[in-house]
Amino acid sequence: MTEQKHRAGFVSLVGRPNAGKSTLTNALVGQKVAITSAKPQTTRHTIRGIVHRPDAQLILVDTPGLHRPRTLLGQRLNDLVADTLSEVDAIGFCLPANEPVGPGDRFIANQLAALRGRPVVAVVTKADLVDRAALAKQLMAVTALGTEVLGEGGWADVVPVSAADGFQVDTVSDVLVSHMPESPPLYPDGELTDEPEAVMVAELVREAALEGVRDELPHSLAVVVEEIVPREGRPEDNPLLDVRVNLYVERPSQKAIIIGRGGSRLREVGSNARRSIEALLGTRIYLDLHVKVAKDWQRDPKQLVKLGF
Ligand SMILES: Nc1nc2c(ncn2[C@@H]2O[C@H](COP(=O)(O)OP(=O)(O)OP(=O)(O)O)[C@@H](O)[C@H]2O)c(=O)[nH]1
Ligand SMILES: [Mg+2]
C-alpha cells in the first residue's frame, strides 16, 4: 500500500478586477477571510486564507485584480502581485465564465507566461451565471489562450467553478493540492488567515462603506484603523472595545456622499460594519468612524505610505 504524503504550499489567485478571486478564496477556506464587492479593485493588498485538509494545506494568496495601471495606486497594486507571484508554488488564474476572454486577460496571461516553471491553473469562475453550452465554449476559449501564450502544453489544468453555489469548489482544491510540494502543514490547525486583526477590521469597514455607492467612489476610499482599545471600567465578563477608524476620501464631495444626509449613510455603514467586526472579534465594540479628505491620495507617494500602501 502506498502511503499518501502530506502536501502544503502557496497558491496565488490572480485575475482581472472583479473576476471572483476573493469570493473563491472564501469558498475554499470555508469562511470569510477576504471582503468582496460588485465593484472592481475591492482587494488592495494580498490576503492569505488557509485551507486545512487531512492530506494537505493550501495557503491561498488572494491578490488585487491586475490591470493596466492608470494611477500610482494601480501601479503599486500590480507590483504587489508581481512580487507575490515570484514566491508561490502554483498560480490560480481566474477568468469569469460570463465575460469573453479579452485584452485584460491576455495582458495577465502574458505576465504569467514570463514566470516559466510555475504551474498555472486556469479557473473559470462564476459558472452559475452561464448555461452549459456557454461554459463549454468559455473553457475552450480559455484553453486556447493557454496554448497561445504558453505553447503546446498550455495551462496545467482548466477548471470551471462557482463559488456562489459550491459547484466544483472541492475540485479546484484537489487540483491545486496536486501541484503542491510534499510538506508538513505550514500553519497551525484551525488558523484561517494570518491577517492582523486591525487589517481585517479596516477591510470590514471598507466593505460596509462600499455597499451601494456610485462607481467612482470605491477607488477613492481608504480605511485606516487608528486604535482598538478595551474600554476601562467594564466588567470582566462583558468587555467592550473602542475601535477608532478613519475613512479617507479624495474630495469633499465624496466625504458628503459617505456621510449622507444628516449622517444617515455613515450611521448605516457603522452599524453594518459593527456587526461584522463583533462577529470577527467575538466581543462587543463601540465603533467610532471619522471621514477625512486626503486630496488625491492615490497619486501622492507620501499619502500612499501614510495609508499603508
Ligand atoms: N454569480 C456569481 N457571482 C460571483 C461568483 N464569484 C464572485 N461573484 C461576484 O462577483 C463580484 C466580484 O467578486 P470578488 O470576489 O470581489 O472579485 P475579485 O476578483 O476579488 O475582485 P477585486 O478584488 O476587485 O480584484 C462580486 O459581486 C461577487 O459576488 C460566483 O461564483 N457566482
Ligand atoms: Mg478581491
How many helices? The count is: 10
Give the strand tally: 9
Query: How is the CATH topology of the largest domain named?
Result: Rossmann fold
N-to-C SSE string, H for helix and E for strand: EHEEHEHEHEHHHEEHHEH
**Terminal-residue CA separation:** 51 Å
Strand order of the largest sheet: 2-3-1-4-5-6
Structural class label = alpha/beta
- The CATH superfamily of the largest domain is P-loop containing nucleotide triphosphate hydrolases
Low-confidence stretches: none
Short description:
Helices cover 37% and strands 22% of the residues.
Q: What would you note in describing this structure?
A:
The protein is α/β, with parallel strands linked by helices and 309 residues long. The chain has two domains: 7-178, P-loop containing nucleotide triphosphate hydrolases (Rossmann fold, 3-Layer(aba) Sandwich), CATH 3.40.50; 197-306, GMP Synthetase, Chain A, domain 3. The protein is 37% helix and 22% strand. It is built from ten helices and nine strands. The protein has helices spanning 21-29, 72-85, 103-113, 132-150, 169-178, 197-210, 217-220, 252-259, 264-281, 301-306; strands at residues 7-15, 47-52, 56-62, 90-96, 120-125, 157-160, 222-230, 240-249, 284-293. The strands form two sheets. It has a six-stranded mixed β-sheet, with helices on both faces. Strands 7-8-9 form a three-stranded mixed β-sheet. It is globular, with a radius of gyration of 21 Å. The termini are far apart. The model has no long low-confidence stretch (mean pLDDT 89). Bound molecules: guanosine-5'-triphosphate and magnesium ion. The site of magnesium ion has 6 residues, from helix 1. Residues 7-182 form the Era-type G domain. Residues 62-65 are annotated as: G3.
